[in-house]
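Hi there,

I know you've been waiting on this one. I reran it after we fixed the sequence typo, so this is the corrected version. Both the input and the resulting structure follow.
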Amino acid sequence: MKLRDKKPALILIDIQKGFLDESYWGGNRNNREAEKISGKILERWRELNLPVFHIRHSSAHPQSKLHESDPGFEFNDHALPQNDECIITKNVNSAFIGTDLKEKLDFQGINTVVILGITTNHCVSTTTRMAGNFGYETYVISDATAAFDRVGIHGEKYDAELVHLMALANLHEEFSTVLNAEELLKKM
């Protein structure tokens, strides 16, 4: 059975212009092509007329790159919503908390979700964990997600690629199946 036969929903997490400012988020972002790859996956979803959910983060902090007053709040040009595609605005790391995402998925009878976006170790991870716990068959697309360098609890620096890979390792085979875009598109 092809994945498309399960009528999977594509959930694009926080693909917003604010994440183009690497230094604001910790620098040294990995997967700089994540938005372009997300756009290619989105194109395929549209061709197959499958459900799409655009999630955007709205920070309460006025100085945030993701505050609604900042140009960074806008969707990235590679993944702009079209027509009647669902847009859900969240204020926390999970796309399920404080939103009607679960109700919308359940109303449409969706039990399979494909998650991509930014950042791997924050909103992608949190949303994926909840999707898995809610019982959705969940996929995360490794090269359509990205992370930034992080500073550890003792001041040590962790490289963005390591942060990204560890976040994916924590999700794979427990909360989701991790695939790359090519593997996903072959399954469609």
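Quick highlight: The chain has six helices and eight strands.

Best,
R. S.
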